[in-house]
Amino acid sequence: MQNLIDTIGNTPLVEINGFHTNSNVRIFAKMEGNNPAGSVKDRAALNMIRSALERGEINPQSKLIEATSGNTGIALAMIAGLYGLDLELVMPSTSTRERTLTMEAYGANVTLLESMEICRDYAEEKAATGEYFILNQFANPDNYKAHIKTTGPEIWRDTAGKITHFVSAMGTTGTIMGCSMYLKGQRETVQIVGCQPTEESSIPGIRRWPQAYLPKIFDASRVDRVIDIAQSDATTRSRELVKRAGIFAGMSTGGAFHAALQIANEIEEGLIVFIACDRGDRYLSSDLFG
């Protein structure tokens, strides 16, 4: 018998067929929407909060604050609720209404501001007063360590060590950093591929950060290649995934899948795993599936 926290991780690895013609290349989606709060961020949220509690940095009386574009906030709201912690989430006002409502349903207080950069500044300023503890997913090693502990080992196990390419959206970069550390620790030749939006594109969950806001946990040397993704391609692939493969996920997943297909068309053989970051139902009020 499990409690809810025990259900985080060990998500399915699902093969995607019918999108490319090279039979020597296989593409798999790591189905992170199967986590209880619906995204890959469940892993980092649990590790950040549990580790802070274990170190005595926070206690049941602590007030937490975090800037988020959505998925981390939802995951933190769930985990904070399970531990009885007070949480304020700061999110761009352009985020879908489903995200705000989900965070509030879990018991978090939500503040909406103009942009992600402004949200980050606001959270850091409130934490500086000493009244709040900021988890700071952008600089917190517990973010990427969650993927050294869980996501990377699961992918290695479920591909029987045959993975040749790992593809992930880059937001806080925790997923790609942790998976890179683990997978390259198993075999250095595994290629780590990150996705970022083109200059003119806006893709929820993937960022092209200004230098001043680049996540401190990001180490460019751990990424072998970065592929720029157009918003139109991410949208198209998200729609194709749900209609042709039954995978209902957000635009960042579509972007990662687009990059995986690009790689599949370049290589002679290989096994590609991309992160299907979340579930598509939190984008229904947007035009993603319209």
TrEMBL record:
Pfam families: PALP (PF00291). Pathway: Amino-acid biosynthesis; L-cysteine biosynthesis; L-cysteine from L-serine: step 2/2. Its EC number is 2.5.1.47. GO terms for molecular function: cysteine synthase activity. The keyword Ribosomal protein does not apply. Coiled coil: none annotated. Its cofactor is pyridoxal 5'-phosphate. It catalyses: O-acetyl-L-serine + hydrogen sulfide = L-cysteine + acetate. Residues 6-278 form the Tryptophan synthase beta chain-like PALP domain. InterPro entries: Cys_synth, Cys_Synth/Cystath_Beta-Synth, P-phosphate_BS, TrpB-like_PALP, TrpB-like_PALP_sf. It is an enzyme of class 2 (transferase). Signal peptide: none annotated. Keywords: Amino-acid biosynthesis, Cysteine biosynthesis, Pyridoxal phosphate, Transferase. The keyword Ligase does not apply. It comes from the Bacteria. CDD domains: CBS_like (cd01561). Belongs to the cysteine synthase/cystathionine beta-synthase family. This is cysteine synthase. It comes from Sphingobacterium suaedae.
